[in-house]
Amino acid sequence: MQVLGKPYRTIWRSQEDPNIVQIIDQRHLPHRFVVEDLRTVDEVAIAIRDMHVRGAGLIGATAGYGMYLAALEASSAGSPQAFLEALEESGEKLIATRPTAVNLEWAVKRQLDVAQKAHSDLFGLVQLARETADTIADEDADFCRRIGQHGLPLLREIAERKNGEAVNVLTHCNAGWLAFVDYGTATSPIYAAHDAGIPVHVWVDETRPRNQGAGLTAWELGQHGVPHTVIVDNAGGYLMQQGLVDFVITGTDRTTFTGDVANKIGTYLKALAAKDNGIPFYVALPSSTFDWEMEDGVHEIPIEQRDSSEVKYVIGSRDGEVMEVLITPEDSPAGNYAFDVTPRRLVTGLITERGICGAAADEVLRLFPEKRR
Amino acid sequence: MQVLGKPYRTIWRSQEDPNIVQIIDQRHLPHRFVVEDLRTVDEVAIAIRDMHVRGAGLIGATAGYGMYLAALEASSAGSPQAFLEALEESGEKLIATRPTAVNLEWAVKRQLDVAQKAHSDLFGLVQLARETADTIADEDADFCRRIGQHGLPLLREIAERKNGEAVNVLTHCNAGWLAFVDYGTATSPIYAAHDAGIPVHVWVDETRPRNQGAGLTAWELGQHGVPHTVIVDNAGGYLMQQGLVDFVITGTDRTTFTGDVANKIGTYLKALAAKDNGIPFYVALPSSTFDWEMEDGVHEIPIEQRDSSEVKYVIGSRDGEVMEVLITPEDSPAGNYAFDVTPRRLVTGLITERGICGAAADEVLRLFPEKRR
Fold first, then answer.
1. Which of A208, A216, A219, A232 would best serve as a mutation to test chain B binding (most B beta carbons within 10 A)?
2. Could you name the CATH architecture of B151-371?
3. Angstrom distances, CA of residue A194 to CA of A166, A282, B10, B118, B287
4. CATH 1.20.120.420 domain position(s) in chain A
């Protein structure tokens, strides 16, 4: 997507030196656009652990490139056997940075798998690791692009009904390209519509406590030129009551194959309001986000509790300096629940890389028949 | 209610000099407790305009005392006629500070009415103004206290069902004693229960964009010793899904006699979640908050739009200094809708100074038969 008028991904190999991985250091957004060079697997581990990068797809891609840098380092090991051992060690180091990030472990294992099956010399192993890292990133971007293409007709149809008036889309949190390699999930149909000349306007939920909407989604939409308005998380219900929302779309951290959607805290409230006002509520996800085992998401998906300081303090910029301010009494306790689960009955449809389906086991399995048991 | 272990109201006449009105300057909460002396009607006008005081009941009481200070100043006018003219002028000045605050105009008119009907000398007129100011404040406190007494049995019943486990109450915004003279509306049953030894715990919605929950409700509950936890506005739905909320109660800025409730933006989302999870949703209000004309609150109550800076910037404290930080891209637009309307079908009941009734015209008019047309 566009940044300062130039197309970017969230992660890429440097054009000057293909052994340097470059990322957008997202800790500085939306206040500063900082590109960071990563030269070692240790630097990649820090970038993942300290959230220079975040979002399921991007964490996976970063781990993929981390394993490529690990392979470069391991190529001095002397033997393929020693190379593989060094690579495994680096993989463990990467996985430990964010143990609950499923895509991280998946990308590390994919790299190890390729290396273990290769029967190649050290030069070939390094080349394979580079190709695999590129493939992981390309696949992520491609899946997101497809989600956009599948979602596009939904927005086009609303636009036709509205006779050229802008389609008002509401989204929560950041399921944007910053969370993936490109396009994003929830944002992908929006970018596809915008790029196709369909007038769209996005209501961007602030998304307390970490403000990924106000900070990241607003920034990426603004950079790509998509009209948008930031609102507090409280406002969506009112906007829907007033007919100011045509379409709601979010991403998801985990969706059961039966259609229950775990996503950033507050998503459930928007889904309730969409239902109450007859507004379509869609969830965009690559199929890797499905949980193919769990049937009752509302009662079974574990919800992470995070540090209360994220609620008590707000991070922002003042005179160009990023700082945090206390908004509660010093000694008031705060609760910080990271996700909620939107039950399938509130979900109009799921937009995947293979197409759209209803939030129900039989519909999901029709799109992904290989997952039938 | 208690502050630093001492009982306070939000406004009172100084014990040292009864011609000095004292208020809690709420702009410094929750970070500092500042009592401000008001000696002239001009100082009162500034205190109302610049929101040293806020909340319907408290604005009314402050206007009442402002008119008393105006009477003190006007007593040098020479004749009752000149006194009345000066008083009217001060009244207009006060009303102009926050033109949409209904209680402000009401308190000013009540003072003028008393003075105009008095046929008293200047000394008597000043005394009358003081008594009227005290009465307005006392009545406000008394109405709030009654709301607490009527709401108390609802919490007691839940406590009995829970066998001594704390009753979990969720509230949105600040309909606490800081918005009135004492007790508050939504908080009054909570204080009554706490003071009666019923274990209560309050989930305090942060209430973006102005954070009246995180800043004011959390502070007043903490000062009075009521266990509470601050949460982001996004969290309530999840807590309800998990059975962690027994009772939801809010205040209101305007409620139609048919039961539609205008309140701080986000209230509607909590009402939807309460309904979806079978949790009682009550609204506490003095009868002065009823709109006796309007029938369809959702479509007729006008919703104020405020400055977008309240969304883009967050005010908090850093190293003891209160400051604001920018949380969005500098150039992203933001929308700031102040209220939403919760339709009557989502409201379990209304708690007034006369008792509890359903959110329906016939039930409201049964409690207030003098309002039948």
1. A232
2. 3-Layer(aba) Sandwich (3.40)
3. 10, 18, 52, 69, 50
4. 2-139
Q: Which spans in chain B are helix H? A: 41-49, 56-74, 80-97, 102-118, 122-161, 188-195, 212, 218-224, 236-241, 267-276, 297-300, 309-312, 361-367
Instruction: List phi, psi (to 5°) of B32.
Output: -140, 145
pLDDT mean over A138-146: 98
Closest chain A residue to B277, measured at CA? A272
pLDDT at A102: 82
Q: 173-212 in B: which are within 8 Å (CB) of A?
A: 203-204, 206-209, 211
Quick one: chain A helix, strand, coil %, rounded to 5?
45, 20, 35
CA distance A213 to A172: 6
Fold of B2-139: Four Helix Bundle (Hemerythrin (Met), subunit A) (1.20.120)
DSSP reduced 3-state for B267: helix
Note which residues in 294-333 of chain A have CB less than 8 A from chain B. Answer: 298, 303, 311-318, 323-329, 331-333
Mean pLDDT for the stretch of residues A45-54 = 96
DSSP B214: I
Q: How far is B42 from chain A (nearest CA, A)?
A: 31
Considering chain A, what is the average pLDDT of its residues?
96
* Gap between the Cα atoms of B365 and A165, Å rounded: 44
8 A C-beta contact, residue B91 and residue B77? no
* Statement: residue A164 has pLDDT above 90: no
Q: With 90 as the cut, is the pLDDT of residue B99 above it?
A: no
Considering only the beta carbons, identify the residue of B298, B318, B331 that sits closest to A325. Answer: B318
CATH 3.40.50.10470 maps onto chain A at 151-371
Q: What is the ipTM of this complex?
A: 0.95
Residue A350 near residue A356, CB atoms below 8 Å = yes
| Residue pLDDT, tens place only, A291-314 | 999 999 999 988 889 999 999 999
> φ, ψ for residue A246 (rounded to 5)?
-100, -20
